[in-house]
Specification:
303 residues; four-stranded parallel beta sheet; 45% helix; binds 1,3-dihydroxyacetonephosphate; binds iron/sulfur cluster
């Protein structure tokens, strides 16, 4: 069944001159058929380098929007219409405007896990892989970090000379990874080292031996001389971890490391997107144009 689906996907991908991008959190079988798999930063950057007419996005909606913002002339099609990140909707424009009134010199630093409309009101975008670097390079003393509270606090610790205003957004998947579970996993495998995504809560990050984006976690595990790792992020990452490191052991910490939105995307959805070239990402041109500025600034500063 899967083999037949893969064959059809392969054929349509060629016919439609399409490129399939996938995030590390989607199912392994979807990662397997993708042209490029990566973290949010890699996928945003990759989208600007693709000569194809069509991008099929296997990820959540803010990722497809970023691809469209950066490539208005391309058709960007979501593999699943309803795959959306709840965190992207945890801040509104009124709050941004209120903070701008309070701190006229503030830099609004927007984690890419946000809507195009929010990006359009921000000064610069960041991902989990480049947030510290970018915030350090900003001339502003006051930083309004939106929407993720955990990533914001993690960045603030590395940049103590700036004044941070935080928001209360969070990722429910990473929030459900509890310190007690991490400690239990460590007790069961004391020789394993702990890798965590900065969307995890502060008490989990304090236990981690390494903190980084999904791509950085994979890179760290692949370069490491250690053989065993406790992984504090969404389970989709295990596919690439095992692929790159067949002789190493990776352990999860509980049963909730599962993003229901990323997991909506199946081979059938990819095939449907290729057949129908829908649902296409559509953005109002004014919002797209305004949102492109902080995204381009991110690509520039992250170099
Ligand atoms: P990265 O891809 O930057 O590691 O972020 C993870 C994430 O939550 C994407 O939704
Ligand atoms: Fe959003 Fe968290 Fe899912 Fe990433 S893992 S898409 S931040 S809900």
């Amino acid at each position: 069944m899967n083999e037949e689906l893969k064959k059809q996907i392969e054929q349509l991908r060629k016919e439609k001159n399409a490129v399939i991008l996938a995030h590390y959190y989607v199912d392994g079988e979807v990662q397997e058929i993708a042209d490029f798999v990566g973290d949010s930063y890699f996928l945003a950057k990759k989208a600007t380098e693709i000569p194809a007419d069509v991008i099929i996005f296997c990820g959540v909606s803010f990722m497809g929007e970023s691809a469209k913002i950066l490539n208005p002339e391309k058709k960007v099609v979501m593999a699943d219409q309803y795959a959306d990140c709840p965190m992207a909707h945890m801040i509104d424009l009124d709050r941004i405007r209120e903070v701008r009134r309070q701190y006229p010199d503030v830099a609004v630093v927007c984690y890419v896990n946000s809507t195009a409309q929010i990006k359009a009101e921000s000064d610069v975008c960041v991902t989990s892989s480049n947030a510290v670097k970018i915030v350090k390079e900003l001339p502003n003393k006051n930083i309004f970090f939106i929407p993720d509270n955990n990533l914001g606090r993690y960045v603030a610790k590395q940049v103590p000379d700036k004044n941070f205003i935080f928001h209360d957004g969070f990722c429910h998947v990473h929030k459900s990874i509890h310190r007690e579970e991490v400690l239990k996993a460590k007790e069961a495998k004391p020789q394993a080292i702990i890798l965590a995504h900065p969307e995890c809560t502060e008490d989990v990050l304090e236990e981690a031996d390494f903190v980084g984006s999904t791509a950085q976690m994979i890179e760290f595990a692949s370069q490491s001389e250690k053989r065993e790792f406790i992984i504090c992020t969404e389970i989709g990452i295990f596919y690439e971890l095992h692929l790159k490191n067949p002789d190493k052991q990776f352990y999860s910490v509980g049963h909730r490391q599962f993003c229901p939105n990323m997991k909506r995307i199946k081979l059938e959805s990819v095939l449907h997107a290729l057949e129908s070239l829908t649902p296409e990402v559509q953005l109002e041109e004014e919002i797209r144009r305004k949102a492109e500025i902080p995204l381009q600034r991110m690509l520039e500063l992250a170099k």
